[in-house]
Design goal:
By secondary structure, this protein is of the alpha+beta class. The strands form 4 sheets. A 3-stranded antiparallel sheet has the order 1-6-5. It is elongated. The model has no long low-confidence stretch (mean pLDDT 89).
Length: 135
């Protein structure tokens, strides 16, 4: 899912992105529950009764380290510290469902005439996808 999320408050840290739990949900749909950060059936255990590399409490506010969560999920990310911009890639564990089903996720692309074509339009038919780039 492509999204841009402006975060108003972060914890000052030169290397990691710390956000409040509500912003975590806005960033990547994870919800902080008593057992940890969860999305659908995927949960990353997070103890919230003491400070750690993934969760801290400051002035009675809990903070989640999004970069540590990404590391635990093997999610790639990039940062431009000067611009205060973070970019997070797909979470590999959330992509495994379609691999188990041997079903590609639906997407739309324009055909040669510019008309949108959905992969779902070809359900039940054999499809060859060819990807090419000049680089």
């Amino acid at each position: 899912v492509d999204r841009n999320t402006a975060i108003e408050h972060t914890l000052a840290d030169p290397t990691d992105l710390w956000v409040v739990p509500e912003d975590l949900t806005r960033i990547n749909d994870f919800v902080l529950k008593p057992e940890g950060a969860c999305i659908d059936d995927l949960c990353v255990p997070i103890r919230q009764d003491r400070d750690s590399e993934i969760f801290v409490t400051r002035e009675e506010q809990g903070w989640i380290n999004v970069t540590e969560l990404a590391d635990r999920l093997k999610q790639r990310y990039v940062v431009d510290a000067d611009a205060r911009v973070w970019g997070f890639g797909e979470i590999p564990a959330t992509r495994s469902a379609f691999l188990k089903q041997a079903m590609a996720p639906d997407f739309k692309l324009p055909d040669r005439s510019g008309n949108p074509v959905s992969l779902a339009d070809f359900r039940g038919k054999k499809v060859m996808l060819l990807s090419w780039a000049s680089w």
